[in-house]
């Protein structure tokens, strides 16, 4: 499948685009577009790539992204195997900064919204009560039309602009340096890693896939993603490990090898570097939080 790094989501009729996604799997192409994007996952699991951030996603995952921030919600492998019992569902809203006029967000009354748009350039991972509010509001917005639809979107953005229930997604120094002409090369690398991360991944094989020498590929990848290729692979493996830990069906030792690590010590070290917690602590905190929610 040819990748579409630059995606066209413009509506030819309305001032902004709102879509409910119902598919066997989410768009498998790594891409970016000149629109702000509010997206929430209602069904489906996999690995989420946003800028230089990699992590597991599941229902509830809700983000607000600024323009031209590369992203991909890569559904797990079993979603591509024709299992009719598996499907993905999400709601996404796209809009440009001038969707209500060139200087709309420059008005003094729009200061908080202007700051929200600025924050979104690093990507915002929405948490807590604001996540619940956004998910309910986005579902309700699907039923609106005309002027009421625009008012409801502004209300959503206004509430989000006054909330601290979020974490930045990309690192502080991240800048998108990708070019549309590089689409296929980066897509091939993503797909190769997602298919082989449980095995040993040889740098020379990936560099050859990208049509580069090892040294050139390492420079290219670091420049484009703000991280080394080795860190990228570790991020994918840890994202998979997080999913297995949350499922609570395997031991930490089993998860270590199932995620592509050769030693438990390296697994624990990489896991803490990326998540800030040990695998056991990560799992314990999640299970405790889940039990509180159920009560």
TrEMBL record:
InterPro entries hit by this protein: AraC-bd, Homeodomain-like_sf, HTH_AraC, HTH_AraC-typ_CS, RmlC-like_jellyroll, RmlC_Cupin_sf
GO molecular function, one term: sequence-specific DNA binding
Every HTH araC/xylS-type domain range: 187-285
Keyword tags: DNA-binding, Transcription, Transcription regulation
UniProt keyword annotation of Oxidoreductase present: no
One Pfam match: AraC_binding
Protein name: AraC-type DNA-binding protein
Organism in which the protein naturally occurs: Pseudarcicella hirudinis
């Amino acid at each position: 499948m040819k990748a579409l790094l630059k995606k066209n989501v413009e509506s030819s009729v309305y001032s902004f685009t709102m879509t409910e996604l119902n598919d066997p799997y989410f768009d498998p192409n790594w891409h970016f577009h000149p629109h702000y994007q509010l997206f929430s996952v209602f069904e489906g699991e996999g690995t989420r790539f946003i800028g230089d951030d990699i992590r597991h996603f599941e229902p509830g995952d809700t983000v607000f992204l600024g323009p031209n921030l590369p992203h991909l919600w890569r559904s797990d492998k079993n979603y591509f195997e024709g299992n009719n019992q598996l499907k993905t569902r999400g709601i996404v809203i796209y809009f440009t900064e001038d969707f209500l006029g060139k200087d709309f967000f420059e008005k003094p009354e729009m200061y908080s919204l202007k700051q929200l748009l600025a924050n979104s350039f690093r990507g915002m991972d929405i948490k807590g009560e604001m996540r619940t509010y956004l998910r309910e509001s986005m579902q309700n917005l699907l039923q609106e039309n005309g002027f009421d639809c625009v008012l409801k979107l502004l209300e959503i953005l206004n509430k989000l602009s006054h909330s601290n229930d979020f974490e930045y997604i990309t690192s502080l120094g991240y800048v998108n340096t990708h070019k549309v002409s590089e689409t296929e090369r980066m897509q091939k690398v993503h797909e190769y890693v997602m298919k082989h991360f449980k095995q040993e991944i040889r740098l020379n094989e990936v560099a050859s896939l990208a049509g580069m020498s090892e040294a050139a590929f390492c420079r290219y990848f670091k420049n484009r993603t703000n991280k080394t290729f080795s860190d990228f692979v570790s991020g994918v493996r840890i994202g998979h490990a997080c999913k297995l830990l949350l499922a609570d069906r395997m031991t930490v030792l089993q998860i270590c090898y199932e995620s592509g690590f050769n030693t438990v010590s390296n697994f624990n070290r990489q896991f803490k570097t990326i998540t800030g917690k040990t695998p056991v602590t990560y799992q314990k905190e999640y299970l405790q939080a889940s039990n509180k929610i159920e009560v």
